[in-house]
Design goal:
alpha+beta; Deoxyribonuclease I, Chain A; 6-stranded mixed beta sheet; 6 helices; 21% helix; catalytic activity; Endo/exonuclease/phosphatase; Endonuclease/exonuclease/phosphatase domain-containing protein
């Protein structure tokens, strides 16, 4: 099939999976989370706080998967996945991941930790939808808890996006920890990004805590997307699957 520049529509979901545990780590819910992610039916899934390995959990929890959590979530639905390991400790590691129904032709994890023990990353994937003339850049981030760290990390995000070919669409999603809402202007002015919920409904979607969201910490930003619209997800079962509610959107490029 020859490459084309005709419009492409696809769905994307972002969720901080809280390492497979419910709020306050009360229950291990990764199996329920997998069912919920499947039910949304998206083409790209952006994951934060996902385990690569954890030996202590594997020994203690009867149904803890024998494969990395991102592979378990991908299962037979998303045949392509990439993992960016951010934090490494005695029992294992965790980071960001992308699950994709499109081929991932390249990926690189960028360490955007600033200082101290807080480890943060930016996973950049290039996905190539079949028959498309240009790829889509999918970038999954989890930014720091300190405002000064986030501002430096946002500049690193802008630097990466500005280094990409201008005509290639960019989808940036994840947990921004931006409870003051300062990232919107930085990303708009610094890299030409717009947030899909902010553009559609005039404000970012509240996602934390999942049981009664008051803070808009999770975001989906796009560049060179001709049409984009948020998708409404039900409160249940998501309010008991993580401390963050997910976001989903239909993207047209």
């Amino acid at each position: 099939m020859p490459a084309t520049s005709s419009p492409l529509a696809f769905k994307a979901l972002t969720v901080n999976v809280h390492k497979g545990f419910s709020t306050f780590n009360r229950r291990f819910v990764l199996h329920e989370l997998r069912d919920a992610v499947r039910a949304v039916g998206t083409d790209l899934v952006f994951l934060q706080e996902v385990h690569g390995t954890h030996r202590a959990h594997a020994q203690r929890i009867a149904n803890f998967p024998q494969v990395p959590q991102y592979e378990f979530l991908a299962d037979e639905i998303w045949h392509q996945h990439a993992y960016g390991r951010n934090a490494v400790y005695d029992n294992g590691d965790h980071g960001n991941a992308l699950l994709s129904k499109f081929p991932i032709v390249y990926y690189e994890n960028h360490d955007i930790s600033i200082r101290g023990p807080e480890r943060r990353g930016m996973l950049h994937c290039i996905v190539q939808p079949p028959g498309r003339a240009v790829p889509v850049h999918a970038i999954c981030v989890h930014l720091g808890l300190q405002e000064s760290h986030r501002q430096q990390q946002l500049r690193l995000v802008c630097n990466l996006i500005n280094s990409l070919p201008a005509h290639e669409p960019v989808l940036l999603a994840g947990d921004f920890n931006d409870w003051r809402g300062r990232a919107h202007r930085v990303l708009r002015d610094g890299a030409g990004l717009s947030e899909v919920f902010l553009q559609s409904q005039g404000h970012a979607q509240r996602t934390f805590p999942a049981s009664m969201p008051v803070l808009a910490l999770d975001r989906i930003y796009v560049r060179d997307a001709t049409v984009h619209s948020p998708l409404v997800l039900p409160k249940k079962p998501w309010d008991r699957l993580s401390d963050h509610a997910p976001l989903a959107a239909e993207i047209h490029v």
